[in-house]
Design brief:
Chain lengths: 478, 487
């Protein structure tokens, strides 16, 4: 039987505020345990939550970016359950009336086609603390630094049909929240993580199969793998005559498998009710107008502009707009070079991307900034160096040896453009390879490449390949 | 000179200003009275004598420096539901018997800033859940008018301490009548302000949408001075309203000719003790003699108050009390064998029966499948009740009736009958459900036991309520009566 996989994602994006959603404590990551938890975060008797205005602005930005409704009135509710790192015994979240609902996001698939994914809702909530099970010999330590950190939970429709679509959607949200400057997107630190709802059904069936929820996946790769594994597990189960149980599962990346965490029967009754400590959140239209004016150019708009203004291919534009930092870098380089967008795009998507990938760093941490990078490319466009030499210079720049000009000078990499000097070298090459010259003239035209190689070798790559070609042809054919 | 404890707070304030006595003398006088009488009454959980004398000395210095206000140097007691920095804040529970608060409640800050002197923390029903002060982990409080009777609750310690003049005034909190009912049963004046008038910051929550702090003292004038230090916007409480605070003492004494007093027929019906009704009618006659007009009104949804209240309050408390889990503070059981065991035993040992009863009821009411039928329905009833009052206030200026159906009952009399206990708040809880201000004012005695007149006003009408109560107190002296043993 042919199976169809149905996936919906719940993404938790930690909002980039300085202070927590309901208290004045700092949200900075990595502090000593319990040094960034105030009385409110600790849930001491008698404390009360006060909503951070900035989180409302950020959620509204997100809502506008996905063409959603930003609710004029939304309500904070308490989700009640006991857990040691949940200080109040309830999490303040939004339940019946979320701040954002009914948005859409268009993803681009590998084959270049696009697909619209529905975003059911996005709601504001507070994060819990962390339980530390190591170092305490049979006991559990509690770190409440993270308690009260603002989260935007973004819930999609079950619109995705493959792990690849799910990853494309997650990447798009990841890019969007960074464009909006509302989340740092740091997945190692848990600022961006997701739960995946996965079910399978025979192709052609309209009713959904029973779903499982895979909790807390914190990398694109793991999302893809976890969905793959889970969908296959469900298919195998059904094909063997079994039934999928609605449950929460955990993905173990080390063993690449999902494991049951708790079944529906064991699930908590969260006893949601409106939080009586917080009045309903009412957003005036004037506030929305203000947020609209602050909206940055969004990825889709930027992509269209890159294609139009810079004449980039859809593929190149798509890669460059994937992150706001990459797009900004690109535009800074083009501006410094006063054009040459295609060259910049090729170099960024090729050499620069490869080095970033190799070193596992983001573009804002690249050792070569946009101005320095433009300095390198300028030496290609003015024929000071060849593209091949430029790669060597780029490596040196990457190692911190200085700017392009400095390195070209120090290493004597300047291209030989004096045609007299080149001719002398070429004559010497031809003189040293009489049999190849004979074969070439005898009709083996592909030997031209051999002569170019010999000349480049003799000049240590400093000759202009175009010029070498031209002179060689003159001498051999003439 | 009258003995210090026979004076109202307002009189003491004038005495301090006139230099008739110092705050240290005054404070020592009340500390001595606590030492002499509280063994029997049990109205205090914690007495902070040393800190009180130090604060009194500081108040005297402040006065000498010419920086005294009306409350500077006035000793008073805080209900043990308010966080007090560095002092045990137990909320009447074993759960918090070991809990030293690390900060002050807004109410406490207000009194500290005014230079008032805290004598200690008063006894109360556990987590403010009770109407007799019998649910306290620290034992029941006795009513000074008859020590075999209850003082009411949950602010029973505050009411008894003021009634026996162990403190010139005290704070209380009122979720369903917890200021007004004990004020009535102990013969003192108590005010529950409009919801949102006094910040709840630092006040341990029972039912967040109903809780409101207020003053308890012999007279309305005293309450006006106290409320001045308590009321006001506080950005730490999102339900606290940003609204100017009136000068409550300034309006006292204004005429009330033409004041329309609404008498809800539902509050003068079956279940009301005939003698209590007689005292209330006598007070109403005083108002008529002052030019007020009595108007019969109806609050048709009154009978729904108790059922709605006993869904909303337990539901909110079941969530509010989840934080008492033995993890970070408060009682933790010995040698828990695992997490579940720690939760179960810590909470099982830390909470008393009434608290557990309400947590169970509230948890049930919020459960999946029951929410709509209970919590949502109760919230809809709240709207009906609010609408009843809104219509009434289109017709009248204030509403009056008895605060309680009977005078103080005997200790133990209703302890095993929660429904009958809950009915002692039958006239007061609607006011909390609607968020209105209400007062209880002494209106006489029945067989030597005090009776309270309940005065309810429209939103934000605290100044008017205080003046209306004050006018009665200019004509009567019930608020100055002190039980013989404490005179």
């Amino acid at each position: 039987m042919e199976w169809e996989i149905v996936i919906g994602l719940e993404i938790h994006a930690q909002l980039k505020t300085r202070s927590k959603i309901f208290s004045g404590a700092s949200t900075a990551y990595g502090a000593e345990p319990n040094t960034q938890a105030c009385a409110v975060d600790l849930g001491l008797p008698g404390v009360l939550p006060v909503l951070n205005r900035e989180v409302v602005r950020m959620a509204a930005k997100f809502g506008l970016a996905i063409g959603a409704e930003v609710a004029r009135k939304s309500v904070f509710a308490r989700k009640n359950y006991f857990y040691p790192d949940l200080p109040k015994g309830y999490q303040i979240s939004q339940y019946e009336l979320p701040i954002v609902s009914n948005g859409t996001l268009t993803i681009t698939l590998d084959d270049g086609s696009s697909k619209v994914i529905g975003v059911t809702r996005a709601h504001l909530e507070e994060d819990a603390g962390k339980s530390l099970h190591e170092d305490f010999h049979g006991m559990t330590g509690i770190d409440l630094n993270r308690a009260g950190t603002p989260l935007l939970e973004i819930v999609s429709e079950p619109d995705m049909r493959s792990a690849k679509e799910a990853v494309a959607y997650m990447r798009k949200i990841h890019s969007l929240v960074q464009y909006l400057d509302i989340c740092d997107g740091n997945m190692q630190e848990g600022s961006f993580r997701c739960d995946a709802n996965v079910s399978v059904r025979p192709k052609g069936q309209t009713a959904f199969g029973t779903r499982t929820e895979i909790k807390n996946i914190n990398s694109f790769r793991f999302v893809e793998r976890a969905i793959h594994y889970e969908a296959q597990r469900q298919i195998d189960l059904i094909e063997d005559g079994g039934e999928v149980v609605q449950e929460t599962r955990l993905y173990d990346p080390d063993r690449n498998e999902t494991r049951s965490m708790r079944t529906k029967e064991e699930a908590n009754d969260y006893r949601y009710f409106p939080c009586p400590d917080l009045l309903p959140l009412v957003i005036e239209p004037a506030f929305i107008d203000e947020v609209k004016r602050e909206m940055p150019e969004l990825p889709d708009e930027k992509k269209a502009r890159f294609e139009q203004d810079y004449g980039l291919s859809s593929y190149d534009a798509n890669v460059l707009i994937a992150s706001r930092a990459t797009a900004d870098y690109f535009e800074a380089v083009v501006e410094a070079l006063d054009g040459e967008a295609k060259l910049v795009a090729n170099w960024m998507n090729g050499e620069l991307a490869a080095r970033l990938n190799r070193d596992g760093i983001e573009i804002d941490a690249a050792p070569v900034d946009a101005v320095a990078f433009a300095g390198l490319l300028r030496r290609i466009t003015d024929n000071t160096i060849s593209g091949k030499i430029a790669k060597e210079v780029f490596d040196a720049m990457w190692q911190g040896e200085g700017g392009a000009d400095e390195i070209i000078e120090a290493r004597g990499l300047k291209q030989i453009t004096d045609s007299g000097a080149l001719e002398a070298i070429i004559d010497e090459v031809l003189a040293n390879n009489p049999s190849q010259v004979e074969q070439y003239r005898g009709g083996q035209a592909k030997l031209l490449g051999y002569f170019v190689g010999q000349v480049m070798k003799a000049t240590q790559g400093k000759a202009n390949p175009g010029q070498v070609n031209q002179i060689l042809k003159q001498k051999l054919d003439g | 000179m009258t003995a210090l404890h026979r004076m109202t707070l307002a009189e003491l304030s004038r005495g301090l200003a006139a230099g008739d006595f110092s705050s240290v003398e005054l404070t020592r006088h009340f500390l001595d009275r606590i030492a002499a009488h509280d063994g029997l009454l049990n109205s205090f959980i914690t007495v902070t004598d040393e800190a009180a004398l130090a604060a009194a000395a500081a108040a005297d210095r402040r006065r000498a420096a010419g920086e005294a206000g009306p409350l500077t140097g006035i000793p008073l007691a805080q209900k043990d539901i308010f966080n007090t920095d560095g002092v045990r804040t137990s909320c009447g529970s074993r759960m918090l018997d070991n809990y030293i608060a690390p900060f002050d409640a807004r109410v406490v800050e207000g009194f500290n800033a005014a230079g008032a002197v805290m004598l200690g923390k008063t006894n109360m029903d556990e987590f403010a859940m009770g109407s007799s002060n019998e649910t306290s982990y620290y034992g029941p409080v006795k009513n000074p008018w008859d020590t075999e009777r209850v003082p009411g609750g949950s602010s029973g310690g505050s009411a008894a301490a003021v009634a026996a003049r162990l403190a010139p005034a005290a704070t209380g909190t009122d979720t369903g009548g917890s200021i007004r009912q004990p004020a009535a049963l102990c013969g003192i004046t108590g005010l529950k302000p409009t919801y949102g008038r006094v910040s709840r910051w630092g006040m341990i929550a029972f039912a967040s949408s109903l809780d409101q702090a207020g003053p308890m003292a012999p007279s309305a004038e005293d309450c006006a001075l106290l409320l001045q230090a308590m009321a006001g916007f506080d950005e730490r409480d999102s339900t606290c309203m940003e609204r100017p605070v009136e000068d409550y003492a300034a309006g006292l004494g204004e005429g009330i000719e033409g004041l329309k007093i609404g008498l809800p027929k539902e509050y003068f019906a079956a279940g009301l003790d005939a003698e209590v009704e007689a005292r209330v009618r006598e007070a109403l006659a005083v108002y008529e003699s002052l030019g007020a007009e009595l108007v019969d009104i109806t609050l048709p949804n009154s009978h729904l108050s108790a059922p709605a209240y006993y869904v909303v309050a337990p539901a909110e408390c079941s969530s509010n009390l989840s934080r008492f889990d033995g993890v970070r503070f408060g009682h933790r059981c010995d040698d828990p064998k695992d997490l579940e065991d720690m939760y179960c035993r810590s909470r099982g040992e830390g909470f008393g029966d009434e608290v557990k009863r309400r947590i169970l009821v509230g948890t049930y009411a919020l459960s999946a499948g029951y929410y709509d039928a209970y919590y949502l329905k109760a919230q809809q009833i709240r709207r009906l009740i609010r609408d009843d009052f809104r219509r009434a206030f289109e017709q009248v200026d204030v509403i009056m009736g008895p605060t309680t159906p009977t005078p103080a009952f005997r200790l133990g009399e209703k302890a095993d009958d929660p429904i009958s206990m809950y009915l002692s708040d039958i006239y007061t809880i609607a006011v909390n459900l609607a968020g209105l201000p209400g007062m209880s004012v002494p209106a006489g005695l029945v067989n030597g036991l005090p009776v309270g007149l309940h005065i309810v006003g429209d939103y934000w009408s605290e100044a008017r309520l205080l003046n209306v109560a004050h006018r009665l107190q200019l004509e009567t002296d019930w608020h100055k009566r002190i039980p013989e043993a404490y005179a």
